From TrEMBL, chain A:
Keywords noted in UniProt: Cell membrane, Membrane, Transmembrane, Transmembrane helix, Transport
Entry's localization field: Cell membrane
Membrane spanning stretches: 20-44, 88-107, 119-138, 158-178, 199-224, 257-276
One Gene Ontology cellular component annotation held by this UniProt entry: plasma membrane
Family of this protein: Belongs to the binding-protein-dependent transport system permease family.
Organism the protein comes from: Streptomyces genisteinicus
Protein name, UniProt field: Carbohydrate ABC transporter permease
Automatic annotation (TrEMBL), chain B:
Xref: SUPFAM superfamilies: MetI-like (SSF161098)
Protein name per its UniProtKB record: Sugar ABC transporter permease
Membrane topology: Multi-pass membrane protein
Keywords noted in UniProt: Cell membrane, Membrane, Transmembrane, Transmembrane helix, Transport
Family per record: Belongs to the binding-protein-dependent transport system permease family.
Listed GO biological process terms: transmembrane transport
Region annotated Disordered, chain positions: 1-29
Transmembrane segments: 39-58, 101-122, 134-155, 182-206, 237-257, 289-311
Subcellular location field: Cell membrane
Organism field: Streptomyces genisteinicus
Keyword hit for Membrane: yes
Pfam families assigned to the protein according to its UniProt record, in alphabetical order: BPD_transp_1 (PF00528)
Amino acid sequence: MSTRTLISPAQLARPRGRKLYWVTFAVVVGIFTIAFLGPLYWLVSSGFKDAQEVIQTPPTLVPGSFEPENYSRAWEVMDLASLLFNTLYYAFGALAFQLVFDVAAAYSLSKLRPVLGKAILGMMLATLMIPATVLVVPQYLTVLDVPLIERNLLNSPWAIWLPSVTNAFNIFLLKRFFDSIPKELLDAASMDGARPMRILWSIVLPISRPILGVVSIFAVVGVWKDFLWPMLTLPDPTKQTLNVGIYSLSNGVPVNVLIAALTIASIPTLLIFLVFQRNIMSGLTAGGLKG
Amino acid sequence: MSAPSLTPSKAAPPRRNPPRAAGPAPSTGRFAKSLKRNLTAHGFLIGAVLCFAVFSWYPMVREFFLAFQKTDGGTTTWVGLDNLTTVVNDPAFWQAWRNTALFTVLALVLGFAVPFVAAVVINEFHHGQGYLRLLVYLPVMLPPVAAVLLFKYLYDPGYGLLNELFGAVGLPEQQWLQDPDISMLAVVVASTWMNMGGATLIYLAALQGIPGELYEAAELDGAGILRKIWHVTIPQTRLILSLMLLMQVIATMQVFVEPFLLTGGAGPEGSTTTVVYLIYQYAFNFNNYGAAAALGLLLLVLLAGFSAAYVKLSRAEDE
């Protein structure tokens, strides 16, 4: 990192500058740690406290009581295992649908260039301009009675999976990446007799690993974080996601058990983030802005 | 990437055309080929297009119709502007818009400025940038129930950490979410904490693209830190800043989850009822889809201008 920034290296090199730099650095790191890690620490540690200690003032920094069984109680009382399973099922199902349909669509729009392809892409991108919340009501009514097949998708995973495909931003990201794959490469393959499916599978997909990774992470995290849509379309308590399930049970359980449940619910996405940090950061900046 | 040496296409092995019963005139052959190519291409598109048709395009059209219809039991009647008048005459209507506007303004002051300042500060450090980036993005990865209920505890007037903190530095304790005067601010603070990570990282990337010579030149002209920010940093990141501003407006005008989870939606004396919460109430508490759609259409009209500007700007950025 030798890029020149706001403060000149000459200023920094002076003893006073260096002192100031380290003081500011310590203050900022301190503030950031307290502001962003502090609440998480409170969450995890309160999960170990007994009900009395959680609501005690002043709060204890290190739990005086130690009840790791809060976590197992949360697991059982709130049936976190099935909530977790549901969420995983919806998230990875949505990921599969998005990977298959959105990648195929982006490949077609970018490389096969069908008649009306531009218009279709335009109509897809137009959905980004409609505020998502405005569509929630008609989308919900559509799920109640899907046209053509006349099925009610309420309480069915399809209600999560199929609408997740309509992610114009993903298609746009993928198409932009596919556009950058040199045409000569694909021409050569098709001269060797490869059909479009084979070209997609053996040439385009292997090259596109980075963007596929980014899209996949956002797809999984998107379902994991969604609240309103699963709350509306999955009213059956046994079919709910972690977010909705914990929310609807939140009033009936002791504080410390609820906090333990929140901690457990946070672990998977935090793990995804810690493992795939690099991809997420590059996706955020390379993909530019999310619409 | 090693580009394969290109042989002229004439040298390519002749493609085996499917045997065609009808005349093998070259024009028909080309037509058949283009038809086949198009069929393949549309075959790849069909899954996504069907999903869009059913779950995006059809609901878009339907939203428009719903707004002018009333459904009673099984019968749907055209009621013109009735839904709109119902919505506008609801006493909650203006309050919801005022609250939403307040949320948006507060979210711009905090949610727009805080990540930018954070990014400018982080960018100055030669150490620990990775750690700081990790920290600001952590809350983004929390499921909203976890983040929001966490804040509910922090805000608790009885044992909440925030009052504890206020007490420690000698500030008066607050009722936070229970006080109609500051409940919206409390919601915005929580929302900013939850969501600022993405914006901060985008700003950081933009800041790192600023050529250092510009700062050097400004120094030669005797500019201090603030003047450098004003004359170099901000102009250089103007496009990203305006994009994020538009996006922030579009996103915050649609806020729902934070007030819904923090204050149950309405909040004390309706002080956190937002437009989208009102839409939610019409549709899912009162089963009045027409009114919900009419209100949605108003929001759509209001946000269309911002969205159009956003698309135009992001295209400019692309080029």
